[in-house]
Fold:
Amino acid sequence: MNFHPMIDVRLNPASLSFDYGSGVFGPQCEFRRIDDIRSSLLDPLCCGPDPVYAIAMDVGRISHRDELRSRRLLFGVVAYASGKLGKEFVHSQGHVHAISRHCRCSTPELLEIWQGSAIVYMQEAAEDNPGRCFAVEAQPGGKVVIPPGWAHCVINVDPGEVMTFGAWCVRDYGFDYRAIRAHGGLAWFPLVDESRGVKWERNPTYDACCIVKKHAREYPELSVWREVPIYEQFSRNPESVQWISNPAKVASTWERFEP
Structure:
């Protein structure tokens, strides 16, 4: 990887999986196959890499295991395949975070790109009117916050390279795909244009008017800084990421939030 996340997790690109170093725990990857995500693609019959992406949830240093559980926090790592999904860049199928039993609400997520080039796409709702729509570009070390209740996906915008990221979420995480699948995807499809850039095509099942393009930023309101890897942030001060599992701690932050 070309970014040091301050936790010994290593990509095995041949198998699209992760190996864990001494003192680090983690599970075998779960794979998302192309057949799993066809309902959210522009062309459900397209060809593409299979598996499309791999997820390892509940990763961390062994010394932090009890702290992670007591704070209801979960760290995950994800790898996206190189290639394309028909005319689209490789991306996840899109979801909304399900209601957590712990805090009784949908929860936010904090992502950090480790390798490759990514766009985190998000929209305020998965309803016919998706509200504001954002496409946030991020390179290795870039961080992106997804607010509670927003529909979103992550996109690998370099077809020639595997893309990886780490993310904080609530321990009793869940994904709600229903509304997005009913709409045949999110409000905008990320197509590959002639120069291998992103061409956004509107999904006609939504009443979406525009998409706002942004770059990954720091979040001083959440104590998230570019130079501090997000796992290291927890290691130094676990309370500083407690808003992940208890978003009410920073309730005012979510009002008219912009990523």
User: Anything to note?
Assistant: The chain has a mean pLDDT of 97. Residues 218 and 225 are 5 Å apart (CA to CA). The longest strand covers residues 73-80.
